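Fold it.
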Amino acid sequence: MCTVVVRWAPEAPVLVLALRDELVGRDFDDPGAWWPDQPDVHGGRDRTAGGSWCVTDTRSGVTALVLNRPQRRFAAAGAASRGVLPLLGAARGRDWTSHVALDGMASFALVLAGPDALTEWEYDGQELASRELPPGVHMVTSGGAEDGKADRYLAEFAARPAADAWRELVVGRDPQDDPAALVVRHPTEGAVYATVFGQVIESRPGAVTLSWSRTPWIDDSWTTQLLS
């Protein structure tokens, strides 16, 4: 996951836009209830490691998302995959840190958006820090040049309160070879790194609306599902 926009306020539905940037060709499954030990959890499944970049618990209304960060790009041998973190966040809430060993993991940001709080953790490969975000609209990226996305786009998201309007901000933006673009496509070292998935989630406990697309810049490519 590389771009996350969240609208959070107490006693209001949580609204999330999540854009996943990844190497083209890395296989993944569309959102579903892929994890039998967490039957209320829906999200896309990475076929390489079996985890996810973004999941939502339909019972609690909590969405958990992980983004890569630049400080430590590769995990040590035997370290846990970052894809386990959204599943832990959905299951354990803010106590997820007690249920995974961070030693050796690649760096990340984890965002936990639920009815009671919006929390972000950042791990630089050595230290884990957290912060509670206030009510409002926030953007989290994978860092570096991508942080320029907030200057370009955050005000547009803040000015539009509806889920459909957030999706419309992505539709029509063709992929660009620009790390600060909302939708990207970047050839690198014989491979292509690009926006491969987009989703918009509006959730409250017991009721979730999930829209997603593998080509989120194309209007009629989106699928919408109501989960309860």
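DSSP finds three helices and 14 strands in the chain.
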